[in-house]
Amino acid sequence: MKLLRVDMRERKVRSEPVPETYQHQGGRGLTAAILLGETDPTADALGPRNKLIVAPGLLGGTGVSTAGRLSIGAKSPLTGGVKEANAGGNAGDTLARHDFKAIIVEDQAEPDGFYVLHVSRDGAELVPAGAAQGRGTYASAEWLWKEFGEGCTILSIGQAGEFRLTGAAIAVTGEGEQRSNIAARGGLGGVMGSKGLKAIVIDKAQGQSVPLAEPNLFRAAMKRFALELTNDPKLGPKGGTHMYGTAAITAAVNEMGSLPTRSFSDGSFEQAGGLRGEHLRETVLKRQGRIGTRCMPGCVIACRNVYVDDAGQPLVGTLQYETIALVGSNLGLGDLDDVARLNYMCNDFGLDTIETGAALGVLIEAGLAAFGDFEGITALLLQVGQGTPLGRLIGSGAAACGRAYGIRRVPVVMGQAMPGYDPRSLKGNGVTYATSPQGADHTAGNAFGARNQVNPLGIEGQRQLSLKLQIISAMLDSTGLCLFARPPVIADPQLMVDMLNGRFGWGWSTADLDAANRAILRTELEFNRRAGITPAQHRIPEYMRREPLAPHNVVFDVPDSELDAVFDEL
Amino acid sequence: MAVEVELFGQFAVGRQAHLMLEASPGMTAREIALDLGLSPEEIGLVSIDGVLCELEEAVPGDCRLCFFPPMTGG
């Protein structure tokens, strides 16, 4: 495989062989290794010395179910630390089949100059962004498809990324007209904007396939993996994830008292019934939208939906739990139509819905709108696309809004907004937020799935649980697998080893796999240490340690000594 | 004693999702599940008044009992 280096200042592109040090890395592991190996962790995240890295997972392009996720990494302008955000769509699969292990975007174009990187079978080139500049991600994709062909895969930023905002995301297209797979977290859209890169367009990889070192081993493992996903009661065709999407958990999180409500001031929402996955499914089917579609080629879970209005016109695809929590209950909104409309706006401006929902919640507490006031909230959000001073503040995230308006109840860790689980009543997630090198990010180690093993309201066992989950997440993010696909490879790590050995011929054991996963976390922690991140920046906000959360009236009370010991056994 | 019961996800398909039951003192969540036609092996999560519990837990009066199918967070 090759690396594609893109020099934005000189507007030159070159491919080069993959150095030995990166051979066993993919996805999140590779982005972290490149950041630590090639950048100064103290560099300005929005400056020329940061790098934006786009990398398929190790199993990208192979056809393994759910393994087409694309990792995007850089130093985060939001957290100041290492960041990886990944997305579904076609890019992970297509880039790997074009034989690219990563695209590394370096330096910056001239101020206000925006370009498109066009990647084809024969190489790559930078061309002016033309009419895509200034547009949202939906319109950008439309224009770029006309310019480069309908089958292309497009990664793009919206206005928020062009403004270099720290809550900006990167949108990735998928099958058909799918445009809403989002690498959301950590302000990576702002980094892409700072480079002067509006979009990456990747030609179809028709007829190209990745080589297999041991085809029989690989195919047997791949087949068993897909079969086990299909047979899993959570993930198969009769499972909640397929039937109700990620919103399947909305009612349970609400019942557990962990659903962010009115800017994390309550743990359950009286209108949660209107936000539940069951209601989403019923509404979408009644309106002839789509349920149970996939965001990546070959995914057998198929948790995606296309949410439509009452005339059957698509509002957004896909409407997911984290958005429902942060843009719904967190803003006092109990109508999925309202959430879908705000979701579309976030996607189009190129914003992280988690960060933006938390930011809007903070502004509501500051008095700029009211909880449940859809029109008022919409008027605030529209300002991001317009580039007004307030809009730029909203697009900079919850911490920036809190500082600007003197609000101290700001649900962030390392400057990054918490996702859809209040850490006071799901303490395992609190431990992850407070220790992960990624900051407050549920995908770094989500304890919701382990609620039966460790009491979510207790302290005991949370440290060990979070470490275990963080190691597993590092594996999934580096191989390109969806987080939902973890049960078969947790139950039998040899299955993952067989897929990797079948693809690359490494002759790994399960111990080698475990060591590689742990090494990814060590690399990220070392980057953050050199970047100057301290335990103090990782702490759960003080108000969550002092102000009890209804309905269980609990605070986050995992001692700092426990948090500081999470990686003792890494 | 009165128990408010709610069934979620696939459990609510073809069943009454929300109901009030008269339960005998000492009755467990498992016994109530069986009465409702739920197979204990298919239950992913049980909660009483929002606190997760085991199927063998005795259900107190005037509580809210919820049954969820297996589910996972992203």
Layout of SSEs?
The complex is a heterodimer of chains A (570) and B (74).
Chain A: E1 2-7, E2 12-17, H1 27-38, E3 52-56, E4 70-75, E5 82-87, H2 91-97, E6 100-106, E7 115-120, E8 123-128, H3 137-148, E9 153-156, H4 159-162, E10 170-172, E11 181-183, H5 188-195, E12 197-202, H6 215-231, H7 240-244, H8 250-255, H9 277-286, E13 290-293, E14 304-308, E15 314-316, H10 321-328, H11 336-349, H12 353-365, H13 374-386, H14 389-394, H15 398-405, E16 412-413, E17 416-417, H16 427-435, H17 462-479, H18 486-491, H19 493-504, H20 510-531, H21 535-538, H22 542-546, H23 560-564
Parallel strand pairs in A: 1-6, 7-12
Antiparallel strand pairs in A: 1-2, 3-4, 3-6, 4-5, 7-8, 9-10, 9-12, 10-11, 13-14, 14-15, 16-17
Helix pairs in contact in A: 1-17, 1-20, 6-19, 10-11, 10-12, 11-13, 12-15, 16-17, 17-20
Chain B: E1 2-7, E2 18-22, H1 29-35, E3 45-48, E4 51-52, E5 63-68
Parallel strand pairs in B: 1-5
Antiparallel strand pairs in B: 1-2, 3-4, 3-5
What can you see in these coordinates?
The complex is a heterodimer of chains A (570) and B (74). The longest helix of chain A has 22 residues, at 510-531. In chain A, 39% of the residues lie in helices and 14% in strands. Chain A has 570 residues and is an alpha+beta fold. Chain A has a domain at 2-202: Aldehyde ferredoxin oxidoreductase, N-terminal domain (Aldehyde Ferredoxin Oxidoreductase,  A, domain 1, 4-Layer Sandwich). Chain A starts with a strand and ends in a 6-residue tail after the last helix. Chain A is built from 23 helices and 17 strands. With 74 residues, chain B is mostly beta strands. Chain B has a single domain, classed as Ubiquitin-like (UB roll). Chain B has one helix spanning 29-35; strands at residues 2-7, 18-22, 45-48, 51-52, 63-68. Chain B has a five-stranded mixed sheet, with no helix packed on it. In chain B, a hairpin with a 2-residue loop joins strand 3 and strand 4 (51-52). The longest helix of chain B has 7 residues, at 29-35. The chains are: A alpha+beta (570), B mainly beta (74). At the A-B interface, helix 7 and helix 8 of A face strand 4 of B.
